[in-house]
Write a structure and sequence with these properties.
The chain contains six helices and eleven strands.
Length: 339
């Protein structure tokens, strides 16, 4: 009886064990299937997100330039700001910078160019118009020639000769520096104009240069040069503005023989019956009584200064043969006042 019970119990145990094993295996299979399904779904989602991200990145990249050069190309030309000078209405933007040796003797000038005409490290800028005429020379700081530190010839010049600008072949015209050697200017065609020899050596040009030398230099010099027509290289008028110790000075004169101007002033008698006009007239047309010093000696002290003579229209220098000479102070006794 006991053997029968034991046999039954073993069978029941085996059946239960088998059922448990089957249950366990089935459950594990479902868990594994569920896990695999979630993993696959997760991978699919990741891949999808990656594809979408790549598409988005590609779309952005196609809108960006791929190099710096392309970036520059994409900037409109109108957005580039070009610096232009506006001092006294002069437009610096249309002049091309070129380099010309300071001792170049050629009289040819290129049109619409800018050239440095300062000797050594100086920066003196010259400009030509479309006809190759020298129309402007300027210097922020005019520095005097220094023979102790610079190569200067025994003549006091940097170069043995000056540029052969058309017109300088005339015996009455010098190869005149706009900014003199003594003030640090070079001798090429961009600093030379055909200038009346008396004006250049003894007149207003020479007087102005002496004033600047005596002051040890100047600042903000601008020379404006005018011509009677577009075919000639011989100026008819010069206007210099500059500052000495902060004081603004203007020297303006025609390219003529000052002795002739002074002679004409002295010989004018003013006998015309027409009443004098109150308007200002050019110096060479001024009406003055012969040797009427009262019209020149404005403070009526019996002496005429250089400033008074220039204000009356006389050109420097005043020579010994001028009637005005005896009223002026020729300190060095050389027969010239204001040379």
């Amino acid at each position: 009886m006991r053997k029968v019970c034991r046999s039954v119990n073993k069978r029941i145990f085996l059946i239960l064990f088998t059922v448990i094993l089957i249950t366990v295996f089935v459950g594990c299979g479902k868990v594994t299937e569920h896990t695999s399904s979630k993993k696959v779904q997760s991978e699919v989602t990741t891949v999808s997100k990656t594809v979408e991200a790549n598409k988005s990145t590609s779309a952005i990249d196609t809108e960006k330039p791929t190099s710096d050069s392309e970036s520059h190309k994409s900037v409109p030309a109108s957005s580039t700001i070009k610096a232009t000078g506006t001092t006294d209405g002069f437009d610096y933007s249309k002049y091309t910078l070129i380099v010309v040796n300071g001792g170049d003797m050629s009289g040819y000038r290129q049109p619409n160019v800018k050239v440095d005409v300062g000797f050594g490290e100086r920066e003196y800028w010259a400009y030509t118009n479309e006809y190759g005429q020298l129309i402007r020379v300027e210097a922020k700081n005019v520095t005097l020639q220094n023979p102790n530190t610079e190569h200067v010839l025994s003549s006091g010049r940097y170069y043995s000769d000056e540029a052969k600008v058309p017109g300088t072949e005339s015996p009455e015209l010098d190869q005149g520096h706009v900014i003199a050697d003594s003030l640090g200017g070079v001798s090429n065609a961009y600093n030379i104009t055909p200038q009346n020899s008396i004006l250049n050596r003894h007149g207003d040009q020479a007087y102005m240069e002496k004033v600047i030398r005596d002051a040890g230099g100047c600042t903000d010099l601008v020379a404006v040069i005018q011509y009677p027509n577009t075919q000639t290289q011989i100026p008819n008028h010069y206007k210099f503005t500059y500052k000495l110790q902060g004081r603004s000075i203007t020297d303006e004169f025609d390219n003529v023989n000052p002795d002739e101007v002074n002679k004409n002033l002295g010989e004018t008698t003013g006998t015309s019956s027409t009443p004098p006009k109150t308007e200002v007239v050019p110096a060479n047309e001024m009406v003055s009584s012969n040797e009427d010093v009262s019209k020149v000696d404005t403070n009526h002290n019996g002496k005429v200064t250089i400033a008074e003579a220039k204000a009356a229209g006389f050109k420097m220098p005043i020579t010994r043969d001028s009637w005005l000479y005896k009223y002026m102070d020729d300190r060095d006794g050389d027969g010239l006042v204001g040379e």
